[in-house]
Amino acid sequence: MFERRLFFHVDWLLLAAILLLMGIGVAMIYSTTYIQIPEPGRPGSQFYTQIYAIGLGVIAMVVFLLIDYRKLAESSLFLYGGLLLLLIYVLFRGSTQFNATRWIAIGPFNLQPSEFGRVTIALMLAMFFGENRRGARNIGDLAMAGVFAGVPILLIARQPDLGTAVTLIPVAFGIAYLAGLRMKFIGILALCALVLAWPAWHFALKDYQRTRIITFINPDLDPQGDGYQQRQARITVGSGGLVGKGFMNGTQGQYKFLPVAHNDFIFSVLAEEKGFLGVLVALGLYLFVILRSIEAARLSKDRIGAYLVGGIISGFAFQVIYNITMSAGLAPVKGLTLPLMSYGGSSIIATLAGFGLILNVRMRRFTN
Amino acid sequence: MQLVVAGFFALLVVAFWVFQVAQHQKFREIAENNHQRRLPLPAPRGVLFDRNGKVLVENQSTVNIALVREVSGNIDRTLTLLAAATGADEAKMRETVSRRRREPSYRPIVLIENASPPQLAAFKARRLELPGIIEQTVPARQYPANEMGAHLFGYVSEASETDLTRPEYVGAEAGSMVGKAGLEQAYNKLLMGTDGDKVVVVNSRGREMALARPETLPTEGHRVQLTIDADVQRATEEGFRHFGYNGAAVILDPRNGEVLSFTSLPAYNPNRFAGGIDLASWKELTTDPLLPLQNRALQGRYSPGSTFKIAVAVAALEEGVVSPDFRVFCPGGATFYNRYFQCHLKGGHGSVDMRHAIEKSCNVYFYTLGNMLGVDRIHKWASLLGLGEKSGIDLPNELKGLVPSTEWKKTTREPKWYPGETISVSIGQGQVNVTPISLATMMMTVANGGTRYTPHVVKAVDEGKGKGWEPVPPPPPQSVARMKQSTIDAVHEGMWMVVNAAGTGGRGKIIGYNVAGKTGTAQVISLTGAKIAKGKMDVRDHGWFIFYAPHDKPEIAGVIFAEHAEHGYLGAPIAKFAMETYFAKKEGRPLPMLPPLTPPPARVVATAAQPVATTAQIRQ
């Protein structure tokens, strides 16, 4: 199954960048969750959990690297079915935290099935468009793709977890774009979205979602309430300065002015403790990972591989850009993690599985 | 696709650059405010001593019980438990908490000021059930003598925002304790000291995590030695209480203007302000018809009555209008400008000279002098003696009395001064009014022969830097009018006779000390007949007694103003007791005791008289 020469085609540089980003993430998690009292203090449990998750994630990555991606794509229907079952199970039997039902408790661990949505949908759609022999893509194909992506998106949005649901959309669009979807359709869809925005605002969005958008536009309206996170995010980033306050010396993250610092706002903490220079390094690494992955899509020997990589990396890029924008207080606060850096086992495992597939496609570019 | 992604990243780099480099300073400050809290460490105020080193005003550490809301889980339950344990008023605590609910939740809210030892013990025993309840030790101003000298010392209370703009409160911040009256206000800057502070690092819930920098310790305010003699002060106030009067007294050293005793009664207990006065007590003080918050010695303006004759006598002699031997025949009244003016003795004093006119307080004699002088020369000399002027004492909010003149008359609605008005003025009636401090100043100036020293209460200051007491140079005199020896002799002799011969001041006599004095009766003039009819106000006249001693070498001089005493001579025993105390102390004899009241005072203040009557009835 695994030929020895494939080993030489593994993209070690991409792998190194990924590991470096995870390393930075772990360091920031260590910093923000360190328990100071009682003296002399000890690392928080999140630090260890994250390391275990990375271990599991690396195993997942190896698994998704070793199995030929075409085989995986062929069985994507089963994976997709499994995903839907899990999501439905979550809706009825999931465990609830922070007013959202997103998790399945497995012993001491909480599995978040929605995190695996991106990889599954990327496989599913890559298969769908890649196997389709006809040349041009028509509305029918697009509608089918829309249904494939739409069902899990709706299921996830019901949890409610709008953030994660939204990240599935770029995956679908990325693949559709590579498969030849004309920009015209995207334009039409954007128009539809605008038209639908008004009823959505009044009927589909929940109150807390509406206030998030309002306070995004004017965070000073309610500095202690909903605008709080945004304001604190800006303060955290801005107070970091050029070189930062130093590792574990941040005040905003350390004294918990910034909520969920180890999770959604991990990048703000990096900006605070490592400053603008640290931000440049991390942004550079992310940019490298994305561009390198796009290159892998281009090098792919078949359309399935290209679509698969394109879909995964579109979702990844969207999430990275959105989260970093949010961590500077420049986007509405959503429960959206920063892939590779944020705390979260399911997220790390799913992301690494996705990169396993990207490495897989690049590695097998010469094989038949 | 690569370009789109690279474009987004470029925008992010710009955004982070704007926040982290361009606006770094602004955000750095906000972040610091976020996590650093400055907690003032209040400085103890400077201790006040009397002229002999006796402590008059000090500080005491008091313990407050306070609530920190962010730590307290269930505030309702906590308050109920605390009220049950300590017996404190639960409704009042709730009101306090609700009034201050907008303050940050880490800031303690004081629930029980100056908690008693049993309250503290009760709290400590149940500490585990009372999360968020803490005890705070704060220096609080302490007035060991309670009401004694209240108007002299003043009181302290929390500075309001508007207070902070006043010069004497420079360096204070909102919420710090500042002097609001008396010495505490006048010398606030000296007494206040410098608060220290402690900057702590707090987390988002307000919990203190560490010290941001070493704490700076507070510097105690300067220690101040007063010119006041605690025993004379106490004797004066005891005298008033003993004889049942309210009023005011100022006793000076005529050789330099040092204030030995300064009283205004009724007074308040400044200790009630020290920990923050509650609304009910404040209301009680401000609505009391006896006006305990009014500093009568500096702000009360009353008709001087016959004490004004001293100023007229000095004016007539100094202006050379008459000699001490100038005689006037008093038939019991005289006519000036077609109007008949009575003397208080119906049968008349017969032929009197200056000395006897003072001794007997003969109105006709002084009508005659006033008529010869004219109002402007009376005004000139009254002013030189301090009447109608501010004494310049180093206490706040002094008011001026009024001695009329033709110049003054032009500022009123009737522009002309009629010579007939001078006749009333020359016996201290009509438009004239004076404050007790200004009358004390006149007495001092007449006693020392014309130097109007500035009354002052601060003698020395100790900055606390190890240099010890540094004398404060006395302020320069307000005016100096070198009186002729013949004037001094005549007036002094007349005043000596008031006390020691056939005058009205016999009750001030102290054998061997040659007390000199003059009584006066201040009509409660501002009353209309309607008000009298309603009987809502006490309309009995006020009594004045001005005095100095010894006659030949004055070293103590002052004024007793006895409210509604009806006769000036009724104030004289208070002066006598204060002077006896002064001389006894000076000569190292045991301090005098007040004589038992025989007969009981004719009419004590109504409120004081009633309980006595009730007890008597019960006994029957």
Strand content of chain A: under 5%
Helix content of chain A: 55-70%
Quote the distance from N terminus to C terminus of chain B: 112 Å
The separation of the N and C termini of chain A measures 13 Å
Number of strands of chain A: 3
How large is the radius of gyration of chain B? 31 Å
- Corresponding CATH superfamily of the largest domain in chain B: DD-peptidase/beta-lactamase superfamily
Biggest sheet overview of chain B: 7 strands, mixed
Q: State the helical fraction of chain B.
A: 25-40%
**CATH architecture heading of the largest domain in chain B:** 3-Layer(aba) Sandwich
| Largest sheet: spatial strand order of chain A | 1-2-3
Into which percentage range does the β-strand content of chain B fall?
15-25%
Structural class by secondary-structure content of chain A: mainly alpha
User: Can you tell me the CATH class of the largest domain in chain B?
Assistant: Alpha Beta
Describe the protein:
The complex is a heterodimer of chains A (368) and B (620). Chain A has 368 residues and is mostly helical. Chain A has one domain. Chain A is 66% helix and 4% strand. Chain A has helices spanning 12-33, 45-66, 69-74, 76-93, 117-131, 139-157, 162-178, 183-204, 207-217, 227-240, 266-299, 303-327, 345-363; strands at 95-97, 100-106, 109-111. Chain A has a three-stranded antiparallel beta sheet, with helices on one face. In chain A, helix 1 runs antiparallel to helix 11 and helix 4 packs antiparallel against helix 5. The two termini of chain A are 13 Å apart. The model of chain A has no long low-confidence stretch (mean pLDDT 83). With 620 residues, chain B is of the alpha+beta class. Chain B folds into two domains: 39-226, Penicillin-binding protein 2a (Domain 2) (Alpha-Beta Complex), CATH 3.90.1310; 230-327 and 369-609, DD-peptidase/beta-lactamase superfamily (Beta-lactamase, 3-Layer(aba) Sandwich). Chain B is built from 23 helices and 23 strands. In chain B, the strands form seven sheets. In chain B, strands 2, 3, 4, 5, 10, 18 and 19 form a seven-stranded mixed beta sheet that branches. In chain B, strands 12-11-23-22-21 form a five-stranded antiparallel beta sheet, with helices on both faces. A three-stranded antiparallel beta sheet of chain B has the order 1-8-9. In chain B, helix 9 packs antiparallel against helix 22 and helix 14 (354-360) runs parallel beside helix 20. Chain B is elongated. At the A-B interface, helix 10, helix 11 and helix 12 of A face helix 1 and helix 2 of B.
